[in-house]
């Protein structure tokens, strides 16, 4: 419905601090949020109520994710741990051995059921791949020179991309456990996501969105928000989050507020 496009349908209230990450279950029935209050919440999107509250992290929760079957949940925190949960709010495992030495900024499941893994990144400049069955480390991906904000897994689970302070989007082969190539974002990378139906990677780089064709390793589009400001010192808003629609036709992005 064109008239309702971009209009909030419901507000979900419950966290006592900033909400750092939100994901929606693949069936569209639930949302999962992580907050600086140190908790996760599972929300029923029909009623707008909290169905489960996940308590266990000792510091801010920075990232949350659903497994492809919506039966497992993973979270990353400033307490430097990764936690694996069931949907009843029970922590099944806390990854501490060989975990990140700094904040865990992003965690994601692979959608490939034949290679069940979790991918994480952190402020220690590392991308880590974990065996979902026993939560043991499989691979350390080393190469970034600054802290990492984001990691994303391709729709077929064969590769992942990471980005952060150094402005480089690095592509990693999850089957072979090796670095493939690097794309220059030209600015801090805040978020990354793969197209669901094309061999494209979308990056939130500073105030713009860059879209790479991964076959040619070229930028096919760059999107910038039009900003009208009365101040010559105004800073443009930073693009901090990204999402593709399921059919790959629509991209959504969340800007921060510019200052000035």
UniProtKB/TrEMBL annotation:
One of its GO terms (molecular function) is kinase activity. WD repeats lie at residues 12-53, 54-86, 97-140, 141-182. Belongs to the WD repeat G protein beta family. Ribosomal protein RACK1 subfamily. It holds the Pfam family WD40. The keyword Transferase applies. The gene is Rack1. GO terms for cellular component: ribonucleoprotein complex; ribosome. The keyword Ribosomal protein applies. It comes from Aleadryas rufinucha (rufous-naped whistler). Keywords: Kinase, Repeat, Ribonucleoprotein, Ribosomal protein, Transferase, WD repeat. This is Small ribosomal subunit protein RACK1. It comes from the Eukaryota.
């Amino acid at each position: 419905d064109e008239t309702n496009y971009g209009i909030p349908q419901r507000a979900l209230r419950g966290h006592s601090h900033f909400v750092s990450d939100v994901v929606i279950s693949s069936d569209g029935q639930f949302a999962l949020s992580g907050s600086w209050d140190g908790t996760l919440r599972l929300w029923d999107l029909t009623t707008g109520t909290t169905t489960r509250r996940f308590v266990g992290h000792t510091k801010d929760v920075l990232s949350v994710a659903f497994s492809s079957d919506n039966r497992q949940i993973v979270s990353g925190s400033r307490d430097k741990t990764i936690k694996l949960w069931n949907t009843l709010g029970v922590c099944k495992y806390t990854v501490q051995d060989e975990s990140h030495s700094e904040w865990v900024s992003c965690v994601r499941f692979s959608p490939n059921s034949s290679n069940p893994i979790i991918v994480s990144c952190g402020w220690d400049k590392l991308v880590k791949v974990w065996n979902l069955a026993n939560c043991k480390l499989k691979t350390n991906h080393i190469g970034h020179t600054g802290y990492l904000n984001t990691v994303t897994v391709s729709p077929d689970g064969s590769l992942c991309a990471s980005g952060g302070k150094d402005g480089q989007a690095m592509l990693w082969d999850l089957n072979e456990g090796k670095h493939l190539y690097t794309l220059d974002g030209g600015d801090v990378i805040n978020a990354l996501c793969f197209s669901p139906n094309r061999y494209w990677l979308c990056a939130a780089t500073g105030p713009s969105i860059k879209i790479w064709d991964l076959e040619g390793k070229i930028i096919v589009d760059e999107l910038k928000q039009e900003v009208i400001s009365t101040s010559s010192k105004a800073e443009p808003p930073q693009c901090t989050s990204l999402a593709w629609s399921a059919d790959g036709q629509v991209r959504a992005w969340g800007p921060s507020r510019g200052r000035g």
